[in-house]
Amino acid sequence: MTLDQVFSITGTIAMAGWVILAVAPRRWPLLNALPRLVLPAVLSLFYAAYIFAFFAESGGGYDSLADVRQLFTLDELLLAGWIHYLAFDLMIGAYLADRLDRVGIGRLLQLPVLAATLFFGPVGVILALCMEGSVRFVSFNTRGLAHVRV
Known about the structure:
Blueprint: H1 3-23, H2 29-58, H3 65-71, H4 75-102, H5 107-120, H6 122-143
Helix pairs in contact: 1-2, 1-4, 1-5, 2-4, 4-5, 4-6, 5-6
């Protein structure tokens, strides 16, 4: 497979997970396992294959910005870095959706969080934590701590 083909395949896998998170019913555990476990695991296998095959060849590392830059001079490791983002952002998106479900935040309100997590990672996390914190604060102040699920 060419790098462009792997880029396309892994992007499609990740987008399938995001679509499931955004629109699929959460009452089906097997379907929910796809964006939470199965698809990130598949992406992780692609990532591992490229990292193990090309990391030593790069001459880069994690000790400095220059070393990280050197890692990404190989297209194979640039692709691995992208797949890393796809896998982790999807796992974090699934985790955040679970947390928002537990505090009663509906799917429409979750969409901006999921979109922000997909495109801007940590911004989605901050948005989700603010939404969840707001619901928990209001719930605590109106019913007391005993009614807030953690």
